[in-house]
Each structure stands twice: as structure tokens, then as C-alpha cells.
Amino acid sequence: MKTAGCSTRRDAGQVDRSECAVRNCGEQWTREGTHAWKTGSGATRKTTRREDRRIVRQALVDSRVTHSTIRADVDVAIVPQTISRHLAEANLKSKRIFRALPLTPEHRQLRLQWF
Description:
Residues 52-114 form the Transposase Tc1-like domain. By secondary structure, the chain is mostly helical. The chain has 6 helices and no strands.
């Protein structure tokens, strides 16, 4: 697109990316002849795959386990967001606690009679 004379703004709009990202990609292509991501980019992992499995297993065994309990058991300095991300990757979602138990049809009938 750059060789066709298109602007960075137009290119960014077409690929749904920021202008800065498109510009950096173009500059990398000019310098290195590639647009591939560099290896080693991003934050380093704080947990091993084994520790990741341990986090998920604890949540499966006890659904009421807290982040601090999991962190103490894994014995790695990680933040609660890391634990939440690992659980989300395993398709484990938090459950909302009931404010009250659901009423049975018999309870509903008795309640209506009481009023």
C-alpha cells in the first residue's frame, strides 16, 4: 500500500489498526524486509505451565477458593489479575452468589396466602 502511494491514515483505517502501528510496521519492512514480530517481546512469564495447571486445579477442587489462597499455595509472587487470567483461559468463570434461595412453588403459594 505504501508503494501505491496510500497514506498511513488510510492504511490504518483499512486494516483497523492505529496509525502508529501501521507506521512502525512500514518502517520495520523498510529496515528489515519483514513485518514479523520479534521473539521475546512482551512481559516475561511469572509462572510455569505446571504452576498454571495447579492454579486451575485448585479452582476446580474448591470453587470458593480465594486469590490469596491460590497465590500462597503456588508460592509465586503473582497478582490477582494473573490468577483470573489463567482461570479465564481454562473457561472457569466466577459465579454470582445468590442473595436469597429460590422459592419452590409451594413456598410461593404459602407466601401469597400469607399476604
